[in-house]
Amino acid sequence: MTLNEQIKDTIESEDVVLFMKGTPERVLCGNSSRALEALRSAGASVVAVDVLPDPAIRQELSALSQWPTIPQVFVKGELVGGADIVQELAESGELKTILDDRLGEGWEAAQREERVVAIGPSSPLRLV
Amino acid sequence: MTAPLEDLLRTAFPDASELSVTDRTGGGDHFQVVVESPRFAGLSLVEQHRLVYDALAEPLADGTIHELRISTRGAA
Predict the structure, then answer these.
(1) What angle do CA A60, B43, B39 make, to 5 degrees?
(2) A24-50: per-residue pLDDT in tens?
(3) Which residues of B touch A30 (CB under 8 A)?
């Protein structure tokens, strides 16, 4: 799969995807941390993609999403926003509503643990 | 450092009822912008923020803006 296909595949196949700098265990950017905490506060377990290993990930992602900055949060394949929006939505309670709407009833019980998905030009999609 | 960004936003949102750019850290590259404009009415937050990103595309691309926080509101 090309990088573009790997990104698309991840966005489309996972419920909640966070493209971030670093990983949930080692967040390397304040904005990525804000987005992660906002999602956690709403009860969402993210699938995280670290964009730092390859600048091409960020380029391909931004071309695809028409969103210039990192982090980026997707729910069921759709861009919810960056750190400011996700934080704003979490604080107003709307993030929970979006998750309820898009993931359907009982999504919280079906949550898996936070995971990191590695994306790279040469590596096949793999779970770490 | 904030004036050129404010100019770009004023051009993009001439009818803004509130518009401010703050240098968050004093370092000249981490900014908080607040825009309240009737143009945002009926748009999703993603669409609202995209308009702000579009207005600031050049300083975002050339590295003038290292980090940008955005707060948008449709004017009442």
Answers:
(1) 110
(2) 999 999 999 999 999 999 999 999 999
(3) 67
